[in-house]
C-alpha cells in the first residue's frame, strides 16, 4: 500500500513527514507517529476487508501436513492485520470438511507486535478421508470468516509420497533455497499451486509449449512442473552452477543452464510461453532487477506470461513492523543483505533482501509489460505475486 492510498488528512501529513525524513522530532515522538502509521495501515486493511466481496490471501503458513491411515492432520497459522477471524472453515477438494481448532502461538506475538490477535492465529485440524480422496492431489483450503463471510484464504496442495516422484537433492543444496529443508517439497508444491493457478487464470495451460523457471536453484519449483504440468519443454536456470549440475543429472527431461550474474541468458529471442520466478527479484538490487526483467521480456514469446514474486508492503510489515513505511518511503529498498545462502556463489553485495511498494512495482514493471494481476501475499502467503504479459 503506497502513501497515495492513505486519506489525505492530518495523520497522513504527519506520518508522511516522519517517513520522508522531513520532520525533526524527538525519538519518542517518532515512535508514536510510526505506530500511528501502522494503526492506519490496519484500519485501511479492515476497510478493504469489509468492502471487498472477495477473500484475500492471508498471512500464514501450513507448518505441518501429515496423511496417516486416511486421516489428514494439518497444523499452521493464518491472520489478517485488520481483524481476528470468528472461525476457520476447512475445505478439502472444494468440499467443506471441518472447522479448524484455534491454537495459541505466542511466538506470533513477537513477529507481529502491533497485531493484538496474532498470538491466537494458530490452528489445527484432522479430517478423515475416504480411500479415493487419498489418491492423487489433495486440495486444502482454510477460510477465515469475519462478520459472517469468508475474508481470507490459506491454500495449498498435498500428495502422499510426492517426494518419491523425483530424486531429492542433498541437504547442502536444499539449504541454499530454503533454511527449512522440510519445506523443500511441501513449500515447492505450495509455490507450484500459486503459479499454476495464476497461469490458469490468464491463459489455457494446454497452449503452453515451453516454460522457464528462472532462478530454479535445485529444482524446488521445477520438479512439480515436471511432474504435473504436462508442458512439453520445461527449462530451469540459475547462477548456482552446483545446483544446476544436480538438476541436469536428476530432473530429466527438463533442461537446465547456468546463467551469469547479469544478462544475457543463453536463450534465443521469443523462446518461452511463460517464465516463472519465485523469490528471485526479492534478492536483486533495483538496477539488476530491471536488467533481468528486460531480459525476460526478450526471451518470452509475444503474449507470453511473466509471473514473479516480490517482497511487497505485506512482507515489509511482517519483517519490519512499524519501520515498514520508512523502509518503503522511496518505493524500493535494496540495502539489506540477503543472507548467507549464496556465499561463495554470488559475489559480496549481489544477493540482497529487497522490498518494494506496490506503487513502485506497478509503475516500473508496466513500462516493460502489461500488468495482468497483482496478488498481495499470492506467493506462499508472504510474497506478492505479479502476473505480466509481453506486449
Task: Describe the structure in your own words.
The protein has 11 helices and 18 strands. The strands form 4 sheets. Strands 12-11-10-13-14-18-17 form a 7-stranded mixed beta sheet, sandwiched between helices. It is 30% helix and 31% strand. The longest helix is centred in the N-terminal third of the chain and has 25 residues, at 27-51. The radius of gyration is 21 Å and the shape is globular.
Q: Give the domain tally.
A: 3
**Amount of beta strand:** 25-35%
Strand order of the largest sheet: 12-11-10-13-14-18-17
Overall shape: it is globular
| Oligomer class | single chain
Comma- or semicolon-separated keywords:
alpha/beta; Immunoglobulin-like; Rossmann fold; 5-stranded mixed β-sheet; 11 helices; globular; disordered N terminus
Question: What's this entry about, in short?
Answer:
The chain has 391 residues and is of the alpha/beta class.
Helix and strand arrangement:
Blueprint: H1 10-19, H2 27-51, E1 56-57, E2 59-68, E3 71-79, E4 87-92, E5 95-99, E6 101-103, H3 106-111, E7 122-128, E8 138-146, E9 149-158, H4 171-174, H5 183-202, E10 210-214, H6 222-228, E11 233-238, H7 241-250, E12 255-258, E13 272-277, H8 286-299, E14 300-310, H9 313-320, H10 324-327, E15 332-337, E16 352-356, H11 358-365, E17 370-379, E18 383-389
Helix pairs in contact: 1-2
Amino acid at each position: 500500500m503506497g502513501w497515495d492510498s492513505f486519506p489525505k488528512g492530518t495523520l497522513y501529513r504527519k506520518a508522511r513527514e516522519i517517513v520522508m525524513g522531513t520532520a525533526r522530532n524527538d525519538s519518542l515522538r517518532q515512535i508514536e507517529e510510526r505506530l500511528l502509521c501502522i494503526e492506519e495501515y490496519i484500519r485501511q486493511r479492515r476497510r478493504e476487508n469489509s468492502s471487498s466481496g472477495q477473500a484475500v490471501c492471508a498471512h500464514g503458513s501450513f507448518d505441518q501436513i501429515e496423511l496417516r491411515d486416511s486421516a489428514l492432520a494439518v497444523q499452521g497459522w493464518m491472520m489478517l492485520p485488520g481483524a481476528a477471524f470468528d472461525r476457520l472453515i476447512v475445505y478439502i477438494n472444494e468440499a467443506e470438511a471441518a472447522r479448524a481448532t484455534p491454537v495459541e502461538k505466542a511466538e506470533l506475538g513477537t513477529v507481529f507486535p502491533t497485531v493484538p490477535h496474532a498470538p491466537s492465529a494458530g490452528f489445527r485440524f484432522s479430517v478423515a478421508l475416504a480411500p479415493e480422496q487419498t489418491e492423487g492431489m489433495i486440495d486444502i483450503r482454510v477460510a477465515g470468516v469475519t462478520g459472517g463471510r469468508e475474508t481470507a484464504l490459506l491454500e495449498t496442495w498435498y500428495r502422499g509420497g510426492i517426494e518419491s516422484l523425483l530424486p531429492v537433492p542433498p541437504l547442502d543444496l536444499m539449504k541454499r533455497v530454503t533454511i527449512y529443508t522440510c519445506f523443500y517439497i511441501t513449500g515447492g508444491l505450495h509455490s507450484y499451486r500459486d503459479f499454476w493457478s495464476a497461469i490458469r487464470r490468464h491463459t489455457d495451460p494446454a497452449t503452453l509449449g515451453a516454460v522457464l523457471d528462472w532462478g530454479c536453484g535445485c529444482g524446488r519449483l521445477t520438479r512439480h512442473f515436471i511432474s504435473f504440468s504436462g508442458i512439453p519443454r520445461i527449462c530451469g536456470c540459475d547462477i548456482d552452477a552446483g545446483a544446476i549440475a544436480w538438476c541436469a543429472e536428476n530432473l530429466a527431461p527438463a533442461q537446465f543452464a547456468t546463467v551469469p550474474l547479469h544478462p544475457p541468458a543463453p536463450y534465443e529471442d521469443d523462446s518461452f510461453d511463460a517464465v516463472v520466478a519465485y523469490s528471485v527479484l526479492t534478492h536483486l538490487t533495483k538496477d539488476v532487477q530491471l536488467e533481468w526483467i528486460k531480459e525476460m521480456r526478450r526471451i518470452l514469446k509475444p503474449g507470453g506470461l511473466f509471473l514473479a514474486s516480490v517482497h511487497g508492503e505485506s512482507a515489509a510489515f511482517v519483517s519490519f513492523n512499524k519501520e515498514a513505511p520508512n523502509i518503503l518511503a522511496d518505493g524500493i529498498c535494496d540495502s539489506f543483505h540477503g543472507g548467507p545462502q549464496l556465499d561463495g556463489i554470488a559475489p559480496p553485495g549481489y544477493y540482497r533482501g529487497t522490498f518494494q511498494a506496490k506503487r513502485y512495482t506497478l509503475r516500473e514493471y508496466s513500462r516493460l509489460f502489461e500488468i495482468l494481476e497483482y496478488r498481495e501475499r499470492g506467493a506462499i502467503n508472504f510474497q506478492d505475486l505479479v502476473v505480466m504479459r509481453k506486449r
